[in-house]
Amino acid sequence: EIAKVSFLELLNDSTIPQVVRENIENRLKYIDEKTKKHFFASTLMFGWGYDDNIGSNNPTSFYTKYLPEPLAGTNKVKSSFYETAALFNHMYKYDENLSFRNGLVFYKQDFSQDDSKQLDVISLNTAPVYQIGDFSYSLTLGIDNVLYGDNRYLNNYSLTPKVSYLIDPSKIYETGVKFLTKRFVQETDEGNNSWVYEYQNRFIYQTENYGMFDLSLALGREIDEKNIRYDVSKDYETLSLGNSYKIDEQFTINSSISYSNVNYKDKNPLFETKRADDIYSFILGVSYNYTKDLVLGLNYSYVNQDSNQTPSEYNKNTIKTSMYYSF
User: Whole-model pTM?
Assistant: First the structure.
């Protein structure tokens, strides 16, 4: 602060050379960046798309990134949809090592062919992050509130301790454990209440010529709290690989593939078997930086779920356009 006051006094001197004035202004800018405590970032998203199988959508899986589960016996219904989102992020830098990061997300999705599938999500997360050397340690607390068809549906509460290691400037490895509980609001759905434990691994590699690769592996178990349903408790593994390739300063191609294996723990009395699913997904998209604050996107995704119980099998294609505005 003393140096800043001295520099400001020098700037008031009209006789100092221009090159000295510029050096002082650059130094003041550096001091402001180093002493700044609060950082804010916000993004608004507007999107429109087409889904050829909205019967496979399930709000239990949305946003918490758990595996999709179709509604048995549902015919394929095609529909256009729109979605909007607002993301607000805040970071408080306590000192050079410790910071506190907070995020708030509002999301809405509505289908033209079926109002009962309207989805609204509010998500809040907060995490202290401690960095020392090449290691970063965080503990994220998350809360999700999900409304489905204009009705209160589900609350998720999660706690995720995580460690990140900077191997070198182009490689990062992350590992963590997520503890999550699903609390269904309606009395008729309380049999779905569960606890989820997930071990997460992630490796990020920024190549010189082929873009950034993102490889992740998650191993999880979901346990039925009341032990009265046969379609809740399960073990699952998910392996995914993503790539983000920057063509030039404006265009970026994003792609990802993933495979999930899901094995349910309880026998379904209608089939006399324990359900087992294999889920394959593919996403391909392109984004265009119209300005430094405005990004336009076009994405296609395909999901195919194979199962040893036929009513649980499905596939779907989705295409959507999106606009992101950051400020």
Answer: 0.81
